[in-house]
Design goal:
It comes from Deinococcus enclensis. The protein is an alpha+beta fold and 573 residues long. It is built from 19 helices and 24 strands.
């Protein structure tokens, strides 16, 4: 049993609790929270808590994906042919440390992101806007302190000024991303983070902030602050000096409960207000229609998921013999397009929609939400076809693959029933084609899988992408460009695709962008770099005493996907 004391109240963090108190929100997840440092927050599990401790300059208005409104900023203006952005900042805002937020904190936050800009973070896309490159100073020697310092600065009026090297129509939307939150610069420097000065900036270039001191000792301006965290639970409490409306929920408890049955039981008892489910089929069977449960249908799905088939596997531990001898696979196993097509034809998309998504899903043509501009609906799709899968396997590697067989080891996120089931479907279908084919699947902690996959060490994983900002480039470039964020996980490279994607991000002509994205989608069908997971129709469920969670105010850009809102907008009756 774990105990947390907060403001004189003893909170027992177990699933054996009585119903969660009215002033306390209890959320149960299947896995851990990788980081609490906004400078490296780039997964939804981290974002769910970071966005409630920290705040950005601007945010999305209500459920809109296109309208933005002030948060830590109060107003802004655009000048210099859309290359200069000037922000007025909110006054009398207090950090959790007690420090008062100033323009210097905002400048420090963005400069820190540009300086560190590691492979673990999402700072590549803000660096592209402010420096003209997604690289850091280690990878691009033309990046100097002078360039970083000029990109974001405070003027004599205390306004925050961004100076862009070229027009970026998505810049404002990028500023709403949780990773661009304002951090407490004095607190950060005091605990041993970057000083914010030119003197030591080079020693922080590309530094992984996942386990930074700020990650364990956060200080934001958000409505909630961290009380304490261990391997199994984290406790947050309302920030008494918060500048905005005081939240009705006083305490938020995030618990790690790997077993789905335990999460369902706690939820139905009322011990947990919100839980991570196991997918539509499991959630429908376990909680829909049960007493005390509210189920909301039709939530927009703006994420995209896929099986990654890594064309350059860097972990020899997953390769077995490392050869096509029936006892393993070579590191470039998936570099043969025939292998990728065979795997794509071996997955039962319709069965997954039927059994896992309870019939509430759709097959997309490309890894882009179908509600986004640029989605190409007329591109061909793979379907389960064992004859074609067999034919492509027989072509692969000059016939040696079919003759000798293979052993592939694939990992999936621990606690994710949907990913596990998808792997089991693929394993069954592939192994049925040839008795010499073997697919071994195993679970792996989420944080470990994120780390190994970005190093190219995973052979095959199921992983998804939630939008950082509402523009097709955020998906198409991420998945398909050889310079995209996910490139190290797939090692897919196609010269034509790279050219089309660069052209699409350099024009504001919508029709031209759509044409280019259609070219990419058709080429991706031919090359099959990914097995596209069907996209489920969104839904949410919560205890019936929770107020503030609804389809009307659900914003898919909010990381806290349980309600599509910030914690401060919730209450309990």
């Amino acid at each position: 049993m774990k105990k947390f004391a907060a403001l004189g109240t003893l909170l027992i963090l177990t699933t054996a609790l009585a119903a969660a108190p009215k002033d306390t929100l209890v959320v149960q997840l299947s896995s851990d929270i990788p980081t609490m440092d906004p400078g490296v927050t780039y997964d939804t599990a981290s974002g769910e808590v970071v966005e409630n401790m920290y705040e950005t300059l601007i945010t999305y208005k209500g459920a809109s994906l296109s309208q933005l409104e002030p948060l830590l900023a109060t107003a802004w203006k655009i000048s210099n042919n859309s290359k200069t952005y000037t922000f007025d900042l909110r006054k009398n805002v207090k950090f959790h440390s007690g420090n008062t937020m100033t323009c210097a904190d905002a400048e420090y936050s963005f400069e820190r992101n540009l300086v560190t800009n590691s492979a673990e973070s999402g700072n590549w896309f803000i660096a592209e806007s402010l420096l003209g490159t997604g690289s850091n100073a280690n990878d691009d020697k033309t990046i100097t302190w002078a360039r970083i310092d000029k990109a974001v600065e405070c003027n004599n009026a205390g306004q925050l000024v961004f100076n862009l090297p070229k027009v970026d129509p998505a810049f404002l939307a990028k500023l709403a991303y949780v990773g661009q939150s304002v951090v407490d610069s004095k607190h950060a420097a005091k605990i041993g983070e970057w000083s914010g000065k030119e003197a030591d900036w080079k020693s922080w270039v590309g530094k992984d902030l996942t386990a930074s001191k700020l990650a364990s000792q956060p200080s934001g301006t958000g409505a909630y602050k961290l009380v304490r965290k261990d391997a199994n639970a984290a406790l947050f409490t309302a920030h008494d000096a918060y500048w905005g409306k005081k939240p009705a929920i006083k305490n938020v408890i995030i618990q790690k409960v790997p077993e789905p049955a335990a999460r369902y039981q706690a939820f139905l008892r009322g011990d947990a207000d919100l839980i991570e489910g196991t997918g539509r089929a499991g959630d429908t069977d376990s909680v829909k229609g049960k007493p005390g449960v509210v189920w909301v249908e039709g939530i927009p799905n703006t994420s995209a998921s896929a099986f990654f088939m890594n064309q350059n596997i860097k972990a020899t531990g997953l390769l077995g013999s490392g050869k096509l001898d029936g006892k393993g696979i070579p590191a470039n196993f998936f570099s043969d397009v025939n292998v990728r097509r065979a795997f794509s034809y071996a997955f039962d998309y319709a069965g997954y929609i039927r059994d896992v998504q309870d019939g509430q899903g759709m097959q997309r043509t490309v890894l882009l939400p179908d509600t986004f501009p640029g989605y190409a609906a007329n591109v061909k799709k793979y379907t389960l076809n064992t004859n074609l899968a067999k034919a492509y396997f027989q072509k692969a590697w000059g016939g040696q693959l079919w003759k000798n067989g293979f052993v592939l080891t694939a990992n999936y996120r621990a606690g994710s029933k949907a990913a596990q089931t998808a792997m089991e479907i693929l394993k069954k279908n592939i192994e049925s084609l040839n008795p010499k084919f073997r697919v071994n699947i195993q679970s792996k902690p989420w944080s470990e899988m994120l780390e190994s996959s970005k190093k190219g060490q995973e052979a095959m994983i199921v992983i998804g992408w939630a939008p950082d900002y509402a523009d097709p480039d955020n998906f198409m470039y991420t998945f398909y460009s050889s310079n995209g964020y996910y490139s190290p996980r797939s090692n897919f490279k196609d010269a034509s695709v790279d050219k089309w994607l660069e052209q699409a991000r350099s024009t504001t002509n919508t029709a031209e962008r759509n044409r280019l994205y259609a070219l990419v989608a058709n080429r991706a069908y031919e090359q099959a770099p990914y097995i596209l997971m069907p996209a489920g129709v969104g839904y949410l469920f919560h205890r019936d005493n929770l107020v503030g969670a609804s389809k009307a105010n659900f914003n898919t850009m909010i990381s806290f996907s349980f309600t599509g809102t910030f914690w401060k907008e919730l209450s309990k009756k």
